[in-house]
Amino acid sequence: PIVRPLFFNYDDENLYKINDEFMLGESLLFAPVIKQGATTRDVTLPKGKWLDLWENKEYEGPTTIQNYETPLYKLPMFMNLEKPIDEETLAEIRKIILSLKEK
Hints:
16% of the residues lie in helices and 37% in strands.
């Protein structure tokens, strides 16, 4: 499937416990806020190099980002730098992020 749990892509038993994050294809990881009123959340990144598409910051997984800030407009999303999306799609995502940051 295109949308799948993390353990579909990564051989790590710890990922079976993660039920509030998902992959879109092999490149994009999303970690939506599912607790009403929450403004932060922990984000688990599997093995590999990840780029936070909001902050343009790189992370080396496996790791967990504690208390990642999640204002109402911000859906945490990360790109696997070892399996990046095409430049055109990335440019469109960056446009959307920029427009949301300006509001």
